[in-house]
Design goal:
Layout lengths: L32 H13 L4 H13 L4 H15 L10 H4 L4
């Protein structure tokens, strides 16, 4: 059986979108072109996409009723972005030293 010819109706592969959960909704926003460009560049520099950044921010926005959850997400986001390397291990005695 011959395969169908490829043409304008061939399936397209998204080239710059992140995979999202099935049943994810698309949203259209109006944003200044210069701001959009700066946001895309910053996301690229951070190794992510603007889509992923916006999804994360919306999640933080709707979960902001819980300060503990918001603080935890902020900490995890900052820790993931940190370039800090672990230093030497501190002993229990050193940790509780006073003076």
């Amino acid at each position: 059986m011959a395969s169908p010819p490829l043409g304008p109706l061939a399936p397209r592969v998204p080239c710059y979108t992140d995979p999202v959960e099935p049943k994810a909704a698309n949203v259209t926003i109006a944003i200044d072109a210069a701001l959009l460009r700066r946001a895309r560049i910053k996301a690229l520099e951070e190794g992510t996409s603007l889509n992923a950044v916006l999804r994360e921010r919306v999640e933080e926005y709707v979960s902001s009723a819980s300060p503990a959850n918001a603080a935890k997400r902020t900490f995890l986001r900052l820790a993931a972005a940190s370039k800090a390397q672990g230093g030497r291990k501190v002993s229990r005695e050193e940790m509780h030293e006073r003076g």
